[in-house]
Amino acid sequence: MGKVNTSSVKALSAEQIKQLADSATQIAAYWGAINATEDTDKRAALVAEYSEMMVLNSNIYTTLLAQNGLQGPLGN
Fold it and tell me: C-alpha distances in angstroms, 54 versus 11, 60, 73?
């Protein structure tokens, strides 16, 4: 894994940016709901219902990052 540079980010297509944004939004919504739910049974229900969606979006997100050289430390 090499250094990430800003030209890698600039090279993303509009579709890739949309996919990253949509996936990140879904992942954040999942963790936000889990975090905000204190009731153990309700939290377990959320985990049971939405974990598959979270994993799918996480896989999409990390795959796009890897395919576009966007993993690793930020460099010049």
Answer: 26, 10, 25
pLDDT tens string for the chain (76 positions)?
678 888 889 999 999 999 999 999 999 999 999 999 999 999 999 999 999 999 999 999 999 999 999 988 887 6
Q: Which of 48, 9, 50, 17 is nearest to 32 (CA)?
A: 50
The two structure tokens encoding residue 5: 């540079």
* Prediction pTM value: 0.86
What tokens does 45 get? 């229900």
- The Cα 62–Cα 58 span in angstroms is 6
**What is d(CA 54, CA 34) in angstroms, rounded to the nearest whole number?**
11
